[in-house]
């Protein structure tokens, strides 16, 4: 009777070494990898579904004039408004705004406008990975556009700086069925001297 190793790392090492011990175990390893991939995809989709409609802010003075807004519809369509303002209070700058659909590919969420991954974090992940995150934050995300920022959910209403026209564009985005990308300028934020 063969005693097979339980640890997948051990199994992998034995397979790579060509060990005859594991002649029938290659299939078991492939099955375990498929199970692992399915678990990761399910975990990712649960995180994606945790995203809430509303606005998100990042802590840090670099992001005082920037925000993210999410809008979801009942069909699961998700759109994001990326608002980038000046990086400090001395600079005068008009907001750069992108409204974009988000796509789920292989269990990961991507911002279509930039093709960058959006990593969603639920409370257990937030507490474990970001000890400085607000304890009452129900969901947060990072986008690979700006990995320095953890965008934390603040409120389910649009942000104070949102206009009726911007809200209309967000509605167009979630109602569209195709990839949606729209870039435009927002408010002029005057620097203080």
Please tag this protein with its features:
2 domains, 8-stranded antiparallel β-barrel, 193 residues, 4 helices, 28% helix, alpha+beta
Account of the 3D structure:
- With 193 residues, the protein is of the alpha+beta class.
- The protein has 2 domains: 8-49; 52-189, no CATH class.
- 28% of the residues lie in helices and 31% in strands.
- A hairpin with a 7-residue loop joins strand 7 (140-143) and strand 8 (151-155).
- The longest helix has 25 residues, at 26-50.
- The radius of gyration is 22 Å and the shape is globular.
- The chain starts with 7 loop residues before the first helix and ends with a strand.
- Residues 1-44 have low confidence and may be disordered.
Radius of gyration: 22 Å
- What is the spatial order of strands in the main beta sheet? 1-2-3-4-5-6-7-8
Order of helical and strand elements: HHEEEEEEHEEHE
Structural class: alpha+beta
Count every helix, treating DSSP H or I runs of 4 or more residues as helices. Answer: 4
| Shape assignment | globular
| Count of beta strands | 9
The total domain count is 2
User: What are the low-pLDDT stretches, counting only 5+ consecutive residues below 50?
Assistant: 1-44
* % residues in beta strands: 25-35%
Average residue pLDDT: 77
- Estimated helix fraction: 25-40%
Question: What is the first-to-last residue Cα distance?
Answer: 81 Å
Give the biggest sheet.
Answer: 8 strands, antiparallel, barrel
